[in-house]
Amino acid sequence: MSGWEATLGGWTRVRYLLHVAAVAPAQREAALVEAAAYMQAHLWDADKLRSVRCEAGMPNEAAWDTWLATTAAHVHEEQERLLADLAASQHTPERARRIHCLLGAHFRRRGAFRAALEHYESAREYGITNEHALASYVGILQTAHDMGDAERVLLCYEQAHTMLRALERSHSTEGWQLVRDVAGLPDASCEDVAARLAAWRLVAQWTLCRDALPEPLLSEHSDAYADLLGPAQGAWYAVLWALCVHPPSVQRARAAQVLQDASFRQYTDVARAPRDVLSTYLVSDWPSCIALVRDAHASAWRCDPAIGVQRADTLLHTLLTRLIECHVQAYTCVPLASLSRLFGDSVPRILLDLIRSGARTCTSSMCAPPI
After folding, report:
1. Among 121, 145, 283, 343, which is most exposed with the fewest C-beta within 10 angstroms?
2. Which residues form the 26S proteasome regulatory subunit Rpn7 N-terminal domain (predicted)?
3. pLDDT at residue 364 in the model
4. b/e burial code for range 264-303 (CB count within 10 A of at least 16 → b)
């Protein structure tokens, strides 16, 4: 696996592992076993876990039967207790609001996302302060992210961001613990919550985008969203944003900008591949750059649920196109065979696409005599 799962948590981790199992045959068994172990340790969706275990070929052991019985009893008891508390709190709005938030978290852990959304929405109806509204929006965002509803994430982000800005302007701290509790960030500042909101938005944007790529999230508050967006994932998003763009002058400016970012450098001090792609690009070390890009496509981009296999292939084609355009711009004449050795068998098709799109710098490449 790409290592992205190291910091991921909750349903984000499960979704990543199941995606890897679906697209990477060599890692299928390991990903399924890890997903099952994580779900059994941290989540309450017995039906989903049973399906994953079956797909992984895991035997039904006594410990599994015990977990099923114990978890079912605990979940039922917890649900009944919360619903009883809610029924007794209908004339106490603040208590009812808190219980709706607890029920939202309860159903989300069970994978009952629609029920979770209903309770977070109900909590918002009981709210009377900006903190109340923001706490509800955070719960909705987390649930929408967990269920893969990118459209809902983007819609709710704007509302949550508006509430957060209002709180920052008012310098209010009353009720801030409510937001921390729902976000799962015990010591969160406004900046931490803003970074977490931005992470939800970025993943949703990557899920939906088809043309221009979203700006990367390179933040010193990355600990606030590491369970949603791993450092490697964020670094590769930054690389793709920098290089899948036209013209080459913008490419170079973006690559330099990302390389100078302190958060990007901090992560890539350990896992250097994203930094090395940009560094080799800036010094025109094309063989190294292309090799790193192809490896990232196979090991990282295709394994990202937000990108998916088909779009990872499209991104590779787009990136190679932009790199070829940058490469040939520096020469009067570039042999086609030389380009093919560097960039692969798709070079003729890419050059034709560039010529049709009006990239004048590529016409000489097509006329060059082969070596």
Report:
1. 283
2. 66-191
3. 44
4. beebbeeeebbbbbbbbbeeeebeebbebbeebbeebbbb
181 within a domain of the structure (yes/no): yes
DSSP state, residue 271: S
CATH number for position 144:
1.25.40.570
Amino acid (one-letter) located at 322: R
Q: Nearest-CA neighbor of 353 among 324, 331, 333?
A: 324
pLDDT tens-place string over residues 105-148: 999 999 999 999 999 999 999 988 889 999 999 999 999 999 99
* Count of beta carbons in the 10 Å neighbourhood of residue 90: 10
Q: How far is residue 32 CA from its own chain's centroid?
A: 20
Range of the domain at 239: 230-367
Question: Considering the domain boundaries, does residue 222 fall inside one?
Answer: no
Nearest partner of 264 among 224, 220, 301, judged by Cα:
220
Residue type, 330: A
